[in-house]
Amino acid sequence: MTAVLNIVIPLVGAMFLLVALVSIVRALQSRSQSTRYTYGVGRQEARRTMQIAVIRSVIFAVIGLILLGVFGLSLRPNDMLPGDEAFTPQPTTTATLVVIPPTATGTPPPTVAIVATEAPLPSPSPTNPLLVPTDLPTATPTSVPSAIVNSEVGLYLREAPGGTQELELLVNGTVLILLPGRETVDGVEWQQVRTPTGNEGWVAVQFIVYQ
After folding, report:
1. Residues pairing with 210 in the sheet
2. Where are the beta strands (DSSP E) in the chain?
3. Which tens digits make up the pLDDT trace of 83-101?
4. What would the pLDDT profile of 64-75 be if each residue is shown by its tens digit?
5. Which of 126, 127, 101 has the alpha carbon at shortest distance from 113?
6. pTM
């Protein structure tokens, strides 16, 4: 029924507009004919015919426009054409073969049963998530051997064990990174270290506390 109305309404509206156009043409013809008559009954009749044709053309035009407007409003942008049905994913069915063993000797052969199971539908997502392994080895931080300066007046970093050249004055509480070097010079034990500023040298062991 709706399809028939969608065809009939625009046709009727177009017919009314066509009749309105014909009435306008007749009104123009009546106007041109009215100029041929002198003032009298003929001219008044021609003017009356022209006015009726104009009124009729206006009425038909309004009706035609109303019908076309109703037809335009009846259309919906979301109307689905045949064959445009939305696709709905269907669950997939998998068959599982189950063998039922006999329960006693001499019973009939095993029965094979087919069990159908439906696989769950995948949940919609804009992108496929990346698979991140959860069993990656974690790095265990290793402690770096260090020592702390234990001298209220500070401690000089020297270029060599027992040397006289002073590279840096280390305040009390400075954390030092221990290096492999360790020597004894003139009865004083020296430790090779690296300071927070990046300087490497030697300090007296008696003025540091190992951690």
Report:
1. 147
2. 93-100, 111-118, 146-149, 155-158, 166-170, 175-185, 188-194, 200-204, 208-210
3. 545 556 666 666 565 555 5
4. 788 777 777 765
5. 101
6. 0.36
In a domain, 167, yes or no: yes
Instruction: Extract the tokens encoding 187.
Output: 């009865």
Handedness of CA 9, 11, 17, 22 (dihedral sign): negative
The residues that bridge with 192 in the sheet, in sequence order, are 202
Q: Which of 37, 58, 74 is the last residue of a domain?
A: 74
Q: Are 189 and 144 in contact (CB under 8 A)?
A: no
Contacts of 54 (CB under 8 A, 6+ apart): 23, 24, 27
> What string of H, E and C letters represents the secondary structure of 51-83?
HHHHHHHHHHHHHHHHHHHHHHHHCCCCCCCCC
Last residue of a domain, one of 47, 74, 101: 74
Residues 169/174/177/182 CA torsion (nearest 10 deg) = 60
